[in-house]
Design goal:
Blueprint (H helix, E strand, L loop, with lengths): L2 E2 L6 E2 L6 E4 L7 E12 L2 E13 L4 E4 L1 H6 L21 E5 L1 E10 L5 E13 L15 E4 L4 E7 H6 L20 E8 H8 L5 E2 L4 E4 L6 E7 L5 E7 L2 E13 L6 E15 L8 H9 L3 E5 L2 E7 L17 E6 L6
Parallel strand pairs: 2-9, 10-14
Antiparallel strand pairs: 1-3, 3-6, 4-5, 4-8, 7-12, 8-9, 11-12, 13-14, 15-16, 15-19, 17-18, 18-21, 19-20, 20-21
Length: 337
């Protein structure tokens, strides 16, 4: 074959999935890949893009990575309202559509004359890598939960319908709104509701994912961030938290009097949260949260946007078989959002 490329029903942008073109004749010197992309969702208007990329043939081959290029154009999410966390009822919420992509590759000779054309159509791309709990769009298969935990799960419409992924909620929810096979929907529920349905302090699980109950602290704090698939991911901190305001005094010199004066005061609020008890399997999730661009933390019944500023995840303590860590965030003031 002259073209080698995976043709799975759904592709993940950052999986190792090259598109290889074998030189069709000795006159071809370069290959150009044209991506026709359609994006839609997260509260933004749908948009189409056409991008082209060029590779020189080397040892009679040219290699492209379409997914890595598609990844760059998914909409940026920076408002809590865009991720559609419904705390009141368990209903499917439409987040975004998989990118619909058509690919055209052309071979050119040294005079820029087309030698060969290949067309590869109707691909669906999701951001990130294929997650470990697929078809759930999360890498976290085992999770600790408090009675107050807010849980959110995301999946493609076709998997919610065919794989019956909504069954883990324990509720006979209406999924008639899940009509687009290649759109991503989320389901948000509270652990307290799962306790009511399945029984208090019961493990709630299916073949892919498990919610392990642990004794509740005096209080708990919910956090939401975007995981590597650009889907809302959840984390529950114990109720222990601290806020540390820091003032930065900006001084300037008076041009006429030649004396220093305070020109401006900048305030930085650092938030410290305790993870509470963690499974070893959750350390990857913690690292993913610390690498995310933004988090939303629910403090005193209000969702506050924060920037994770922790530098590392501590190693798991295998002797105690327990792990808890302090995670730092910088709060984003209202006028910075």
């Amino acid at each position: 074959m002259s073209v080698n490329f995976t043709t799975d029903e759904i592709l993940f942008c950052l999986d190792n999935n090259p598109l290889e073109i074998e030189q069709s004749n000795e006159n071809s010197v370069v290959a150009r890949m044209y991506l026709q992309m359609h994006f839609e969702g997260y509260g933004t208007a749908s948009y189409d893009l056409l991008q082209d990329y060029e590779q020189v043939f080397f040892e009679e081959k040219a290699t492209f990575y379409p997914g890595e290029e598609v990844q760059d154009f998914f909409a940026e999410i920076n408002r809590f309202s865009q991720i559609r966390i419904n705390e009141n009822e368990v209903v499917p919420e439409l987040l975004f559509n998989a990118a619909f992509v058509n690919i055209v590759v052309k071979e050119f000779d040294s005079k820029d004359k087309v030698q060969k054309i290949y067309e590869l159509n109707d691909f669906y791309f999701l951001p990130g890598k294929k997650p470990m709990a697929f078809p759930y769009l999360t890498n976290s298969k085992i999770r600790t939960t408090y009675s107050g935990s807010l849980i959110t799960l995301s999946a493609l419409g076709k998997d919610i319908n065919v794989e019956k992924l909504s069954a883990i909620t324990g509720s006979d929810i209406d999924i008639s709104s899940v009509t687009d096979e290649f759109a991503v929907y989320s389901l948000t529920m509270k652990r307290s509701e799962l306790d009511r349905i399945f029984g208090n302090q019961k493990i709630v699980n299916d073949s892919l994912i498990a919610f392990e109950p642990i004794p509740p602290p005096r209080d708990s704090i919910d956090a939401i961030f975007l995981n590597q698939n650009l889907c809302p991911e959840w984390f529950t901190f114990s109720g222990e938290w601290e806020e540390h305001p820091e003032l930065n005094h900006i001084l300037s010199k008076h041009t006429e009097r030649g004396v220093d004066f305070k020109a401006k005061i900048e305030t930085k609020n650092t938030l410290k949260l305790n993870t509470g008890w963690l499974f070893e399997e959750e350390l990857g999730l913690l690292a993913e949260m610390m690498q995310s661009k933004y988090c939303w933390v629910k403090l005193q019944n209000e969702w506050v946007r924060c920037i994770p500023i922790g530098k590392k995840v501590l190693p798991y303590d295998s002797e105690r078989n327990v792990n808890s860590q302090i995670v730092e965030f910088q709060k984003v003031e209202e006028n910075e959002r």
